[in-house]
Amino acid sequence: MAAFLRRVARSTPIGFGAHSKSSRSNFHLPLTAIAAISGGFSYLYYSSSPNLVHSDQIGDEDIKTKNIALIPDKWVEFKLQDTARVSHDTHLYRFSFDPTKKLGLDVASCILTRAPFGQDAGEKPKYVIRPYTPISDTESKGYFDLLIKVYPEGKMSQHFASLKPGDMVEVKGPIEKFKYTPNMKKNIGMIAGGSELLLCFK
Ligand SMILES: Cc1cc2nc3c(=O)[nH]c(=O)nc-3n(C[C@H](O)[C@H](O)[C@H](O)COP(=O)(O)OP(=O)(O)OC[C@H]3O[C@@H](n4cnc5c(N)ncnc54)[C@H](O)[C@@H]3O)c2cc1C
To answer: Where does FAD bind (predicted)?
Structure first.
């Protein structure tokens, strides 16, 4: 991981090699996008009616006008374009959508992902839901990247590990953890541990 972070700091491209030979599939990890602010998310399981749309079929005119792929109150399906192994237990996942749109996530916000996970007593589908923080530039159009550590018995991370290019993942967001605006504070200190990040402003 240390070597990976050094590469990130130098903005060295990491290739999606496993499924794509195109040099266009290389990508850069912007240092500014590493921050993940946590808090308040417990492990989530939902037994809910699907409120689902595909990212190419977004009908809301306002969302279309803003060229944003996410819809705050709906689960949107995104297609997995490619994956790349970063370490023995950590993988990059690139999801693609309309190349004229941005994902619609600000720095220090995250998304929710969900995957089917059995059935409840009434035989309705249950879902496992987990938050993730895309590491791609918030200005990127047509794709976003997740960096995910796969746990041996992790419900969602094992689901991610099983995905193949072309598979769909349901995403909801943005979940705004902190509204950051450029130059809002003179100094920002950060203390990071796992996915937790404590911000100190002055
Ligand atoms: C705001 C936010 C942003 C985040 N962003 C990211 C991100 O960008 N990338 C990322 O990788 N993670 C991120 N996380 C963490 C992520 O949401 C999940 O918590 C993580 O992926 C693990 O989920 P899981 O379903 O795979 O594991 P879980 O099923 O929740 O398991 C968690 C742990 O318990 C262990 N476990 C599970 N079942 C058992 C069992 N029966 N017996 C013993 N041990 C067991 C698992 O092995 C694992 O170690 C973020 C979290 C937050 C709060």
So the answer is: 130-132, 147, 149, 155-157
- 3-state SS record for 66-86: HCECCCCCCEEEEEEEEEEEE
Per residue of the chain (202 residues), give pLDDT as tens: 444 444 443 433 455 654 444 333 444 444 333 344 444 444 455 544 446 666 665 555 545 557 999 998 899 999 999 999 999 999 999 999 999 999 999 888 999 999 999 999 999 999 999 999 999 999 999 999 999 999 999 999 999 999 999 999 999 999 988 888 888 888 888 888 776 677 777 7
Pocket test for ligand 1, best of 92, 130, 144, 169 (most atoms within 8 A of CB): 130
Distance 29 CA to ligand 1 centre (A): 22
pTM score: 0.77
- Round to whole Å and give the CA distance between 115 and 23: 31
User: Element (H or E) spanning 158, and its range?
Assistant: helix 155-162
CA-closest residue to ligand 1 atom 40: 153
What is the CATH code for 2-201? 2.40.30.10
Q: Is there an atom of ligand 1 within 6 Å of 110 CB?
A: yes
3-state helix, strand, coil in the chain (%, to 5): 15, 40, 45
Q: Which atom of ligand 1 is nearest to the CA of 131?
A: 17
